[in-house]
């Protein structure tokens, strides 16, 4: 059997538009990413996960895919993508792509053909077209982005979109849809891609005609598992490849069904991502995660942030440190000094836990959320669909600062597509590389130790008080995190600490790795 590299991997999420701009147009691209691969290699990651790089009108940051077998021209060409995969592999970095099975773009060839063909046509059968109730939509479903989940076509029929109107949902009961996505997976596997992150993985199967039965008619329907069994059979034909699902479900037993041996390899751990900075809450999530996954033999994943959520430094500096998609707490004050200290400790906690870890670009730099973007520059459809009441996710998607003392901070020669704060001059890669106490230096040191001593495996809790998380890994490394207000004593050789220690005393909001 091939080595299951993904069980203990450190995977770095690249939001391509905001990573590095190689051609000077203000938008990140493949040329910029290729030029920064040595940075990722030095950081010590095992793989990169890229948000969608396919041709797209960008109504939702690329998640409105017009062609699953091409590259968005703003990012480069298919030849550039193949060269990037080769460059990454040469550095020992694997490549995971986003795949979006729930919906496509309204500019895709299939959907344009469906609109042109009219009601009752085979082309429309690939989507969810329905007659309305008079001038009202077929039902009262609401879009995840706000507003109705149905939009009326010029001929009077309505089509379903669980996200933006520019993102019509596929009908996964149709054999063309199933065959199309299997072919898309083959297309990229044949080009060397090592895995796929499955966007909105619980949503593809739905029943607009279902009678009310207490269950959500468009989330976690039983038929979704048939899709992933097909995908797993195909994936297993390519040794060493993997599938990770974006599955938001409160029911952990139903979540585990996606991880049966013939389905997805892993799923994202959203309860951990959303947990408050509280020892009891975090311990409960960690225990529940390991207990849920043990029966199906799947490894845990640990993630603190991504392109859809408030950045960790800002979230942990607030009075309410939990994250909830329904309330991003925009405008709630944040003490960034406290947030940075906790984010550093959280990094050591997540990297010491058994399983794989995802790092969202910029977390290793300690970037805060940018909450004062000019309204006219906001691009997230949530801003528009919410009636300009929810600023959306642009604040965690601001382009990275690489070097220099003023914007664009080495991101590229042009004006970045979202403005960078001037005070990011102290958070650039260049500034942090020279500072052994920086967040970047902490991440680099932690990833070196993790590669040598941690990864997948077991965890044994140690009793050190209600406000302390302490555990030992099989290698003998012990992680202690003080989430309380009072300092605690620790015993052992210090390998790495998230902040200064006072002898053998661990201050509040600080973590340490010991042997």
UniProtKB/TrEMBL annotation:
Coiled-coil ranges per UniProt: none
GO biological process annotation, one example: oligosaccharide catabolic process
UniProt xrefs under CDD domains: AmyAc_OligoGlu_TS (cd11332)
Residue ranges of every copy of the Glycosyl hydrolase family 13 catalytic domain listed in the record: 13-397
GO molecular function, one term: alpha-amylase activity
One Pfam family matching this protein: Alpha-amylase
UniProt xrefs under SMART domains: Aamy
InterPro entries, per the entry: GH, GH13_cat_dom, O16G_dom_2
Family statement drawn from the similarity comment of this UniProt entry: Belongs to the glycosyl hydrolase 13 family.
Protein name: Alpha-glucosidase
Naturally occurring in which organism (per UniProt): Actinomadura rubrobrunea
